[in-house]
Write the structure tokens for this entry.
Amino acid sequence: MTYRVCFVCTGNICRSPMAESVFRARVVEAGLDSVVEVDSAGTGDWHEGENADPRTLSVLEERGYALDHAARVFEPSWFARLDLVIALDTGHLKALRHLASAGEDTAKVRLLRSYDPGAVDDLDVPDPYYGGRDGFEECLEMVERACTGLLDAVRQDLEGQLT
């Protein structure tokens, strides 16, 4: 049994690859990398085939995260193989729910910051693309906090599937 998580943002070069990298590191640290697969995609094809934004790569590298990446577009057919589809903001959440053909697929779509108990009012991870490096650092901090809670949720799902 493999548990599959896909992070989704707009172009798949900033937020979603950042979340993919952080969550994959959390999965490895937890010893779950043999049963949890992590990837990412975008809602659009603007950057398809490109590496992550250099600012994304830089802030990840400075914090010790690795990322081997090529941007791609989320395909509705992927819902069948995924356990969770994690949107980085409410626009992505709406787009993904629109792509979901069944209630079962819609239930797989969640906002990343909904897993951060400190995030109360605004659950969006802001798009850092048009700003400076500080936006990427802020984005990474939000992603790290939420990935801790997401890992706990995935553990619970895995336990539920094994019992």
Q: What stands out?
A: The radius of gyration is 15 Å. The mean pLDDT is 96. The beta strands are 3-9, 36-42, 84-87, 109-111. The longest helix spans residues 133-162.
